[in-house]
């Protein structure tokens, strides 16, 4: 008896805590105590613990706003809308609302009547969410689900997807320690380019229970709540909205856009090929049978990844949405590496994270388009001048609409492969892959040295992988690099794809060298290349997450107009909206004497 009491104590404490938490939440939202006694609720809202301890699905801590685990929250301003405070309340015509930007009460002209505030504070939909919480229900093979007990109109806000902001190494750790054996994943993509996810597995709210459907009745949207992409201070909120009128008792669902999460995929255009297929049990008439893209899932030759898939947020929009941004010109030579559709999809997916910019830039690396870049007006700034790019795209959060203007300038200004300037763009895995395959014959001594542009592309791609490795201390990036290499083609050897030191040499090509002497020798019968040793299977690090495709064209243009970002975590810049200038900024010297004195100090 005493032993049982001891064993039951943690669970009992957890359930008491869960009841208290639910009761508190219910009291805030006007829900009675009786509902919190449901065992489903107790299990769902109990404090988090590894599932292996109790042999049950992992529980979670209920939270009502995002927690920042891998970094501190960044603060910044959002643009003020143009609504008329006399008549408007930031309704459907609010510019911020249309761009999925949350109004800041401090700057919104309609405050305090603004209805476009933080998703977590939107009062009217919150009532619906409370009702949805009580409708947690067993959904067979899909586990728990969420349904609404009241009728919901189209476009209604149903709740914010709350979770913990984590980076990729932390996500990998959580998958291995908490989620892998449950096959339940609660990651959604937060900032692709920064490698950040929102995880509702350990801490979250009821929106985490919304299942995937191939014919969803909801959609997940990503709203900017503060800061800007340009300053790397952007923070977001994810919200669930009704796609159509939803009847009472209907289960809520959205299209996860399930895919393997690898930041470098953003640039490669190979999104969707590497994830571990998971069967979809949504039961929709048009169900593809798989979470994600059915046409690609069965083709995956990779063994099931231990770090498997997880849901994403929003449905993949028609890929034609960004096709207009594709550089004009002849069709690309390499259909796989420069897949326009893949690029468009990837660009759209991370458009919020600057991915569209990278997509456009990488597309211009296509040899077919190189001559086109040299036409037109001469550049005002030297190629690769980040300031020039920034100046062309200098749109602050207070001028979101002007962001669409500089897009073409920026793209023209991107350094060509032949001008020798360092790339300002984010190197893509596509570059690694593109370099590898064509340059493989260069190992043959009789072959001429490879062309310089390809060497550059390969080097940049290599640096991308190396940079990622440097930023991830536990070697996750190496694993990912190997993973990407394995997924890139039949060879699966990322080491063989990384250019040799000779090919990575900077500067003009040598006039003569060992390779030239070899090339000058009389031709001989080509010897078949020696078979490459099969590399040991790399530990996969594909963490399936979704990609958000919810940007409006204006938002896409806004992000496309911004300079490329570094990979890895963004540099956090302090924001001083109201404070005096920082101390380290000395006032400009007024005279030569003052300037000399300032130099001497
Ligand atoms: C965000 S959770 C959704 C809530 C989950 N059903 C639960 O019980 O906690 C995502 C997980 O639900 C399952 N799931 C959701 N939709 C599904 C579907 N259409 N078919 C199969 N499994 C699904 C998958 O295991 C997935 O990893």
UniProtKB/TrEMBL annotation:
Residues 276-292 form the Post-SET domain. Residues 17-63, 292-541, 558-592 are annotated as: Disordered. Residues 332-342 have a biased composition (Basic and acidic residues). Gene3D superfamilies: SET domain. Keywords: Chromosome, Methyltransferase, Nucleus, S-adenosyl-L-methionine, Transferase. InterPro entries: AT_hook_DNA-bd_motif (IPR017956), AWS_dom (IPR006560), Post-SET_dom (IPR003616), SET2_Histone-Lys_MeTrsfase (IPR050777), SET_dom (IPR001214), SET_dom_sf (IPR046341). One of its GO terms (molecular function) is histone methyltransferase activity. It comes from the Eukaryota. Residues 76-123 form the AWS domain. Residues 33-58, 343-365, 437-446, 464-502 have a biased composition (Low complexity). The keyword Nucleus applies. Residues 125-257 form the SET domain. Pfam families: AWS (PF17907), SET (PF00856). It is found in: Chromosome; Nucleus. GO terms for biological process: methylation. PROSITE patterns: AWS, POST_SET, SET. This is Uncharacterized protein.
């Amino acid at each position: 008896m005493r032993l049982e009491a001891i064993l039951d104590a943690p669970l009992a404490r957890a359930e008491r805590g869960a009841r208290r938490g639910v009761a508190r939440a219910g009291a805030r939202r006007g829900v009675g105590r009786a509902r919190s006694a449901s065992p489903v609720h107790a299990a769902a809202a109990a404090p988090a613990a590894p599932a292996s301890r109790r042999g049950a699905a992992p529980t979670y801590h209920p939270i009502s706003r995002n927690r920042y685990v891998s970094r501190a929250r960044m603060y910044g301003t959002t643009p003020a809308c143009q609504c008329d405070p006399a008549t408007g309340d930031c309704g459907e015509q609010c510019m911020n609302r249309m761009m999925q930007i949350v109004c800041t009460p401090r700057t919104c002209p309609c405050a305090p009547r603004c209805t476009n505030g933080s998703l977590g504070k939107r009062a009217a939909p919150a009532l619906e969410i409370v009702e949805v919480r009580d409708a947690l229900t067993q959904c067979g093979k899909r586990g728990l689900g969420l349904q609404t007990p009241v009728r919901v109109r189209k476009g209604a806000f149903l709740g914010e997807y709350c979770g913990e902001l984590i980076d990729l190494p932390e996500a990998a750790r959580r998958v291995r320690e908490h989620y892998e054996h449950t096959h339940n994943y609660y990651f959604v993509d937060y900032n692709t380019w920064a490698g950040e996810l929102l995880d509702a597995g350990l801490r979250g709210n009821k929106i985490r229970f919304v299942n995937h459907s191939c014919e969803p009745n909801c959609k997940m949207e990503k709203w900017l709540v503060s800061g800007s992409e340009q300053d790397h201070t952007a923070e977001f909120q994810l919200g669930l909205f009704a796609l159509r009128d939803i009847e009472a008792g209907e289960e809520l669902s959205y299209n996860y856009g399930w895919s393997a999460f690898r930041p470098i995929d953003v640039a490669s255009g190979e999104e969707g090929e590497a994830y571990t297929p998971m069967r979809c049990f949504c039961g929709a008439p048009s169900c593809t049978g798989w979470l994600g893209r059915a046409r690609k899932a069965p083709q995956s030759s990779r063994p099931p990844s231990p770090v498997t898939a997880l849901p994403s947020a929003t449905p993949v929009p028609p890929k034609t949405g960004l096709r207009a941004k594709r550089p004009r010109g002849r069709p690309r030579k390499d259909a796989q590496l420069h897949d326009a559709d893949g690029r468009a999809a990837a660009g759209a997916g991370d458009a919020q994270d600057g991915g569209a910019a990278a997509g456009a830039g990488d597309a211009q690396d296509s040899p077919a388009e190189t001559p086109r870049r040299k036409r037109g007006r001469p550049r005002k700034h030297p190629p690769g001048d980040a300031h020039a790019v920034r100046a062309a795209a200098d749109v602050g959060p207070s001028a979101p609409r002007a962001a669409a203007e500089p897009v073409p300038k920026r793209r023209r200004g991107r350094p060509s492969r032949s001008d020798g300037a360092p790339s300002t763009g984010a190197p893509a895995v596509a570059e690694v892959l593109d370099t590898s395959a064509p340059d493989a014959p260069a190992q043959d001594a009789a072959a001429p040295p490879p062309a310089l542009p390809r060497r550059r592309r390969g080097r940049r791609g290599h640096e991308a992988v190396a940079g990622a490795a440097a930023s991830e201390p536990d070697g996750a990036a190496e694993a990912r690099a190997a993973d990407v290499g394995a997924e890139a083609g039949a060879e699966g050897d990322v080491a063989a794809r990384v250019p040799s030191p000779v090919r990575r040499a900077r500067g003009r090509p040598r006039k003569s060298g060992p390779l030239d002497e070899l090339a000058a020798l009389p031709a001989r019968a080509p010897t078949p290349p020696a078979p490459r040793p099969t590399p040991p299977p790399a530990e996969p690090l594909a963490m399936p997450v979704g990609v958000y495709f919810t940007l409006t064209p204006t938002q896409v243009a806004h992000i496309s107009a911004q300079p490329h970002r570094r990979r890895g975590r963004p540099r956090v810049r302090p924001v001083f909206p109201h404070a005096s200038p920082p101390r380290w900024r000395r006032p400009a010297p007024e005279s030569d004497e003052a300037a000399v004195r300032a130099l001497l100090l």
